[in-house]
Amino acid sequence: MIIPGIRSSRIYIIDVKNPLEAKIHKIIEPEEVFAKTGYSRPHTIHCGPEGIYVSTLGGAGKDGTDGPPGIFIMDCESFEIIGRYEIERGVQDKHYDFWWNLPRDYMVSSEWGLPPQYENGIVAEDLLSNKYGHSIHFWNLRNRTNIQTIDLGENHQMALEIRPAHDPVKQYGFCGVVVDTTNLQGAIFTWWRNDDGTFEAKKTITIDPQAADPNDLPELLKGFSAVPPLVTDIDLSLDDKYLYVACWGTGEMHQYDVSDPMNPKLAGKVEVGGIVKKTKHPNGQDFGYGPQMVEISRDGKRVYWTNSLYSTWDDQFYPGERGAAMVKADVGENGGLTLDPKFWVDFPDGYRAHQIRLEGGDCSTDSFCYPSV
């Protein structure tokens, strides 16, 4: 298991052959990351062609703004850093997530913000000035060049998670947008590839904010008298049928039937946590924050999620220590979600729960090289 440290820029290689006796196999110090890549703040890890791909959220320099962030590649056996991925990056100057269609030989990446825009919490002035990321980038995977960039609109702030269809025959995917600064909506864009190789994107899901008494809101939101959904994570089932959307602000997990990717239909929803609603789990416990990082079992029957986004952002939107937890929902035969009252994972005081990885593989890390039958 490869664990990147966003703040330290240190990378840990963990031996998890015996899961309950995990041990550190290797530590890659930040100085090596800086020297070999010119990047900092490693974030997303994917195993792919030529090695292990690592996206970063910072460039060089003390504050990570001396040059743009990008992707670097590590050797898949020695875990040595090989070097930068990009040969020609085009206009790409921010980074967040990435994923690919391997047989079609293209990659898609997204944008969050630069380190000064997220490390100490959200910068309200930058958000209202639309200075966070709002574009998705398409790459020739093997040539390592940016072949097209689509601006989703500067009001669509923080284009985060990229979820291509798993079946390589299908040349489309989804991107989640945290907030539309014109109306506080969350949004999902469907992107697709045309026969001539060009890409397009269209907004196919919008999720409205919820009105709220300013007295119930954190300082950051009082002036809006509303809670934005804050779409902070999305995940696509392995059969490409259901897209799960985490609404961290309103305390909801949405399930959409995306069999027709241009016309998603809401198929299920559960509520737990939330800035204002504070919906308790069926076991009677407080979930603390809201649904955040989501992971789906390979068979599509179980959906897991945690509640922490990023500590400084947690503290802005959910002031005070709220407790870390992971929960599970069961998926119905024809869609629909039901929280499992018996599944509740507690974490020690002072810790926050974020990313989930399932034993043997899961829906946000598995890529297919061959068409589904």
Which terms summarize this structure?
single chain, 373 residues, mainly beta, Methylamine Dehydrogenase, Chain H, 2 domains, four-stranded antiparallel beta sheet, 6% helix, globular
Descriptive overview:
- The protein is mainly beta and 373 residues long.
- The chain has two domains: 85 residues; 250 residues, 7 Propeller (Methylamine Dehydrogenase, Chain H), CATH 2.130.10.
- It is 6% helix and 40% strand.
- The strands form seven sheets. The chain has a four-stranded antiparallel beta sheet, with helices on one face. It has a four-stranded antiparallel beta sheet with strand order 8-9-10-11, with no helix packed on it.
- Strand 22 and strand 23 form a beta hairpin.
Low-pLDDT parts are: none
Q: What average pLDDT do the residues reach? A: 97
- Structural class determined from secondary elements: mainly beta
Instruction: Give the biggest beta sheet.
Output: 4 strands, antiparallel
Query: What's the CATH topology label of the largest domain?
Result: Methylamine Dehydrogenase, Chain H
Strand coverage percent: 35-45%
Q: Examine the secondary-structure arrangement and name the CATH architecture of the largest domain.
A: 7 Propeller
Order of helices and strands: EEEHEEEEEEHHEEEEEEEEEEEEEEHEE
| First-last Cα distance | 30 Å
Radius of gyration from the alpha-carbon trace, in angstroms: 20 Å
Number of strand segments: 25
Shape: globular
- Order of strands across the biggest sheet? 4-5-6-7
User: Helix tally?
Assistant: 4
**Total domain units:** 2
Corresponding CATH superfamily of the largest domain: YVTN repeat-like/Quinoprotein amine dehydrogenase
Q: In the CATH hierarchy, what is the class of the largest domain?
A: Mainly Beta
Q: Which percent range fits the helix content?
A: under 10%
